[in-house]
Amino acid sequence: MPGPPCGSLLDYKTAKFSLTRNRRVGLLHRLLQLGALGYLLGWVLLLRKGYQERDTAPRVALVTKVKGAAVAEAAGRRLWDAADLTWPPQGENVLFLVTHFIATIQQAQGTCPESPSVLDGMCTEDADCPVGNPVVHGNGIKTGKCLMINATHSTCEIYGWCPVENSTLPRKPLLAEAENFTLFIKNTVHFTKFNFSKCNTLQTTDPSYFKSCRYDPVFNPSCPVFHVRDMVEAAGENFVDLALLGGSIRVLIEWNCDLDHPATQCQPQYSFSLQDMRYNFRTASYYWGSQQQLYRNLLKLYGIRFDLSVHGQAGKFSIVPTAVSFGTSIAFFGAATVVCDLVLLYLDAKADLYWKEKFEEAKPPKGKPEATA
């Protein structure tokens, strides 16, 4: 009489261990175990430090200051110091250092011919300059007149700041001495998960230390005072070439702190990379003349923009990630046995023999049949 239809669901299966003298499978088993052990020791514990709890989102405070002075002869001899060359004056994540400029002095609002370098300002007669139309990529509003500025060029008369902006760029940086300027970068990180804070500056009572020290990754890593020239060269550029038309440099500060070691070993790593060539913007200073006429001096500033970013992570021993890492590695040891079983049962030439030895049905002794309903 057949058993109940759900009888197979109630069967119990227990593991059976068989010793198989198959050297190929035995070698495979040991190699898989060695791989699991190497994963645990090399990758999990040494490289990834899987026994540590990690904080990858520190709070960051960043302050920058520029020191230096340069003299420019354009538009009259003038001394430029950090207050003139640095934008914004109180730098934080972004800092712009002026290295070159074009000056247009004593502009006043009135009428004057448009620049011949502006295509929309070119004309041959008054009809080409409709009244009230702005000059595309130009300097003002058309007045309806076409003016001859020389024997070969005529341009529309405009209402705007006159004379129009000077577009002649000197061939050499006017503030080339800016390469000797220094940039002070003070950075503090706070890992809230571990209540741990660290600053990149050396804790010293000597007030003159930061005035004389210069950063060196080997001999002076705790001095956050950088030469501008060194920063540009570290980004793979020549200062004179970059100073002429400007550019953008990324300054990356990376903290990788192992809090299982002394706090003095938690030091930042600095890296510099060029992000863009050519960077400039315009600014103007306004003043009143003797006849109560409003004037301005227009400056087109070229320079180096420093984009500062801070990344950080800290790790400390914790029992939870340690248990998880060891549990994962033990699972890999078990997977090695499963793989070898699959090879024996499905891929080996004697798979039928191994299958019979691996699986055996335990039947009740004869003469003592199981009770049936």
TrEMBL record:
Transmembrane among keywords: yes
Matching Pfam families: P2X_receptor (PF00864)
Transmembrane segments: 27-47, 323-347
Membrane topology: Multi-pass membrane protein
Catalysed conversion reaction: Ca(2+)(in) = Ca(2+)(out)
Any Gene Ontology biological process: calcium ion transmembrane transport
InterPro entries: P2X6_purnocptor, P2X_extracellular_dom_sf, P2X_purnocptor, P2X_receptor
GO CC annotations, alphabetized: plasma membrane; postsynapse
GO MF annotations in UniProt: ATP binding; extracellularly ATP-gated monoatomic cation channel activity; purinergic nucleotide receptor activity
Keywords per UniProt: ATP-binding, Cell membrane, Disulfide bond, Glycoprotein, Ion channel, Ion transport, Ligand-gated ion channel, Membrane, Nucleotide-binding, Transmembrane, Transmembrane helix, Transport
Residues bearing attached sugar chains per UniProt: 180
Disulfide bonds: 112-162, 123-146, 129-156, 213-223, 257-266
Annotated compartments: Cell membrane
Residues noted as binding ATP in the record, renumbered to the chain: 65-67, 182, 280-282, 300
NCBIfam families in the record: P2X
Family under the similarity heading: Belongs to the P2X receptor family.
Designated name of the protein: P2X purinoceptor 6
Lineage: Eukaryota, Metazoa, Chordata, Craniata, Vertebrata
Gene name as annotated: P2RX6
